[in-house]
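STRUCTURE:
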C-alpha cells in the first residue's frame, strides 16, 4: 500500500509488441509512462525539480512558480505543486487541447494561454519575462539538471532491471530531451554499446511533445554526444502509428508516443537481433478533443 500519491510515480510497466513488430529476432517493448499518477512521463522530472528545489531551499511555500509547457509537464507540476501547497502559473500556447488546460486547472494551477503563432517559444519568452520583472521562480525544464537526473535515477534503472540488462536500443521522442539524456547516461554506464535513438519531427511537421528546436531555444540540458542516432518521423507517420498502437496493441497514447513507436518499428526492421525499449510518453485521453483519433 502506498501512503502518498507521489509514491506511485515511476516503476511503470513494460509490455512487448505482439502485433506491430514483425521481426521475430527482435524484442520490442513499450514502457507505459501513462501509468504514472499524473498520466505521463513528466511526473518524474516534475517531482524531482520541485522536491530538489525545496530541499536546497530554492523553492519555499511563499515562492511564485512559473513554467512554460506544451502540456504534460504542466499537468505534472500542477499536481505536485498542489500537494506541496505551492502557487504555480503555467504558460502554454492557446491551441493546446482543452483537456490539458482543464486538467491543470483541476489541480489548482493558474493557466495563461499565449498566441498560437508564437508557439512554445513564445510561452517560454513570456515566462522568462515574468521571472525578470515580477520575481517569479521558473523551474526551467529545458535547463534544469533535475529534469534529466530524474530519469538517471529512476527510468534508466527500471529499464535495465526489466530487460535483465539485455536492452540493445533505447528509443525516445525528444522534447525537453530530459528523458533521453537521463536514460542514456545511466544505460551507457551499464553497457556503452547500447544504442540511444532520438526521435525528431521532419521539417515543418507538428507533433505535440516532439520538437526540432531552433538553435537559440535548444534545451541547455541536451548533450548531442549522448544520442547515437536520430530518426525523423512525419506527422502522418506519427498519427497513423498512434492509432495503430490503440487498435492493434491496446495502447492508448499520445502522438509523441506514436512517433517514437514508428521510429522503433523502423529500427526493428533493420536489425538482425536486439531488444528495443520505446517510451510511451502519456495517455491518449488528453487528445480526444484534437483530430488525432478522428
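SEQUENCE:
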Amino acid at each position: 500500500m502506498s501512503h502518498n500519491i507521489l509514491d506511485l510515480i515511476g516503476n511503470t510497466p513494460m509490455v512487448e509488441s505482439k502485433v506491430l513488430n514483425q521481426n521475430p529476432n527482435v524484442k520490442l517493448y513499450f514502457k507505459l509512462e501513462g501509468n504514472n499518477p499524473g498520466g505521463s512521463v513528466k511526473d518524474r522530472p516534475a517531482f524531482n525539480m520541485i522536491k530538489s528545489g525545496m530541499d536546497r531551499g530554492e523553492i519555499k511555500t511563499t515562492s511564485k512558480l512559473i513554467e512554460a509547457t506544451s502540456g504534460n509537464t504542466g499537468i505534472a507540476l500542477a499536481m505536485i505543486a498542489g500537494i506541496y501547497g505551492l502557487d504555480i502559473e503555467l504558460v502554454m500556447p492557446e491551441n493546446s487541447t482543452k483537456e490539458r488546460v482543464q486538467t491543470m486547472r483541476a489541480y489548482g494551477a493558474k493557466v495563461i494561454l499565449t498566441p498560437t503563432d508564437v508557439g512554445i517559444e513564445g510561452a517560454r519568452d513570456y515566462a522568462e519575462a515574468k521571472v525578470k520583472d515580477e520575481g517569479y521562480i521558473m523551474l526551467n525544464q529545458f535547463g534544469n539538471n533535475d529534469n534529466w537526473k530524474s530519469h538517471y535515477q529512476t527510468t534508466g534503472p527500471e529499464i535495465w532491471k526489466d530487460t535483465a540488462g539485455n536492452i540493445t536500443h533505447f528509443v525516445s521522442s525528444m522534447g525537453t530531451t530530459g528523458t533521453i539524456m537521463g536514460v542514456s547516461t545511466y544505460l551507457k554506464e551499464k553497457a556503452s554499446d547500447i544504442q540511444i535513438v532520438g526521435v525528431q519531427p521532419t521539417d515543418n511537421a507538428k507533433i505535440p511533445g516532439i520538437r526540432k528546436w531552433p538553435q537559440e531555444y535548444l534545451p541547455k540540458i541536451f548533450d548531442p554526444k549522448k544520442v547515437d542516432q536520430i530518426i525523423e518521423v512525419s506527422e502522418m507517420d506519427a498519427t497513423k502509428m498512434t492509432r495503430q498502437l490503440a487498435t492493434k496493441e491496446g495502447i492508448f497514447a499520445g502522438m509523441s508516443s506514436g512517433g517514437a513507436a514508428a521510429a522503433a518499428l523502423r529500427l526493428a526492421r533493420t536489425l538482425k537481433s536486439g531488444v528495443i525499449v520505446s517510451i510511451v510518453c502519456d495517455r491518449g485521453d488528453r487528445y480526444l478533443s484534437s483530430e488525432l483519433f478522428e
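REMARK: The mean pLDDT is 95.
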